[in-house]
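We emphasize that the prediction below concerns an isolated chain of 408 residues; any contacts that depend on oligomerization or on bound cofactors are therefore not represented. The input was used exactly as deposited, without trimming of termini.
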Amino acid sequence: MTSVSLFTNEFYETSSSTTERFLDNISTVSNTDTFDSSTNATFSKSDDKSSSIENITNWIWIIGAPIVFILGIIGNSGIILVLHRMNRWKKLTYKLILILAISDSVVLCIGLGRQWLRFALDLDIRLFSDFGCKFLVFLIYFSMHFSSWTLVCATFERYLKTRHPFRTYCVNVSKILKITYVFIIVITLGLDCPLLLTNELKINTENSRTCNNTSIETSNYEEKYFVFIDFAWLCFIPFVLMTFMNFFVGRTIKRSFRRTVRYIPDPQNRERHLIGNKKLTRMIFWTSVYFLLTTLPISIHFCVDSFLKPGSTKETSDKIDLSEAILYLFQFTNYSANFYIYCKFKDAFREYLPCKRRSRFSLERPSLSVSRGSRVTTLTNADYSVGNGAVPEFQENVIRTINETQLS
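Result of the prediction step, given as a token string:
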């Protein structure tokens, strides 16, 4: 079975080459003058067990990869289509969501698609050319890092608008976020560009191709240092930042709704606001948790793999490959699930799905406008009784800000 470590990019031989090398070992043993029958029996049992593990790993990729890939491409295409129908391209939040959907699709194509081609068709796209070897290794890392930090920037933009809503009107937050985003991209390029120099296409004496490290020094760098850099930049730092920001976003929204509920005498409207708040908080929470669940296990696995796999037996190596296949495939679901999380927790997102009929959509929007209008009228009447003419305008702005926050 082909064993590929993302963090070392070290290609072991294909299944046929592994079998040939394995048969060579058997022939070497058979040519000796003495051969212990008990050793032969043990060796055959180990061979059968190793072969069964290889078959399980192959079928995990052959069956699981297309399912995750199709769901992810459909989901990310759905996000792009919904954003197009919402026509909110001027908002930075939706631009980041669009970029996230595109980067997730790239990860699925060059990462998950490549794995399926390798195990199902015995075809590795990295072996077509030296440029393809270098560029595809770089691109899979950069796409994953880029996707993670795009999600961080989207969360940060939401954090600023929710935590400090009035400052965002006085300060050009979009410009600050764009500068921060470009700065993060530069750092990511600085971390990943060395991969263009540390990998190359090698043609062995048997005319077999491998995409491997250029030297022992570069191999040691990727196995002992880059794995931890990748773990921190891909998983740990983004998760810590998003957890911190989402905690304060959820607490701020909850306090905001508690203040707003006193101005909503209608129990039905009050309940609708509370339900929307609960769904919004759950969406923020589960997005971060699912990000951690999918990226943390495989990152830890590759860190352990870089120290455990070299010099291990074939059976141990096959078990590591099996665990890698399961965790790696699970990580790819992170790039497929955003659309379904949006649909689960965001009513406004579901309204713009293509499966929604125009007639139904047209009937729902006026009722929402009437509800909002009645809410504003109630607030205005209550506030005019107080005698402060400036309060109604302020409350309308507060309500509009809350509604935009729910849609973002």
